[in-house]
User: What shape does this take?
Amino acid sequence: MSARELASRVLYELKEKFDNVAVKVVSRDSVMLKIWNNQPGVLQMWRDFITYLLLGKQRRVAILEFRVSSPEEVVSAVRRIEDYVVRVEESELYADLPEVKKPALLQGGHDKKVVEYLSDPKPLAEAMVTSALNSGAERVAGTLELEDIEIAVATSRGFDEVYRKTEVMAYLRSFRGDVSGHWAWGSTSLDLKSLGEVGSRSAEVLNYARTKSVFTPGRYDVILSPLVIGNLMNYVASMASGMAILIGMSFLAKKNIGDLVASESFTLVDIPRDTSLPGFTPFDDEGVETYNKPIIDRGKLSSILHNTATGRIFRSPSTGNAGWTNPRPWNLVIEAGNSSLDDMISDVDKGYIILNNWYTRLQNYVEGQFSTVARDLVLEVRDGSIEGYVDRVRIADRFETLLKSVKAMSRDLYDVAWWEVRIPTRAPYVLVENINLTKPAI
Assistant: This one.
């Protein structure tokens, strides 16, 4: 049974029993190949159907998830909870599903070559490994993931559409002695050149690991790689959700549209209709047609992301970002600057290049106070040149401070999607001034 057939069957069974019903079905064929010690190793393959339900009755809402492929199993499970839905408290965020027009579907985003390699992705992994070893790595480890996805949405307001896409997500860590470098890439299409660059970029930075310096906490000019700025802007964009603002989980809760929240050179855009990035979608979970929109435009807050319910609270239409509970961005792009990476390095008298990060945590959501730990090599820059490397570095600052401290961005953009960048992001290298760096506690 296809995703669309399953969504339609479930909707047919439930729409007379509830005031509002939305069904989203995700059908996915996936393969994950793990790379270890220069060799493709563990290969995992699976197929799953995930059925998501929004049920509304008497201003009460239930949201459910089922990992089954049978409509009978889904309907049977709903029957057991139907009586409980009307017993919960009324929701302040209750809103009827919208009546929507047929959305303009998108061309592209589904690559037959990705589907062909689902059965045996080892040649692709071997190309990544070879590129890293040829660029100076002694050993490598990483992951290659391929997916063929079908997504269907049907609602009790007459919406019924489906689309397909493929996804490639690759990352590799290269090692030489006790130092490591890292790169990642995400796309909807298979590109052997980009896969090779995952290997070469992860290894080439190891050539700078000549002299190890002692790191002293303080405020420095810092160049953030596309992986790092991609990770951080995932958090910033998610804080532009109407729900995050309503519940006080965002530094934007104290801001108004038009307020300056970043450097005037900085623009961050939600681009759901770009089919080259794997988060693309022609419609959201309520069936509202998506559109590209700036979240931050030349430093000013430009958009709050809404579904129908949060839009009602803010007296705004949906922005096509549902999420039944939490509106969300789909794909992100940080607009390019006019610098090269070498230009930015030459502008730094005393600072660092942070190439990768993990353990990003929020200490205070309303203030946007965060910390994130550098992973792999951190390059030391002195008098406009890379002098060596350090380790054990953590960024500890506020998002607004970081955004307003952007000094320059590279002309080149890089498509990033991996475990630390869940919202696919097209990002440059970014130079930020006077950022607080500390040592991690562990």
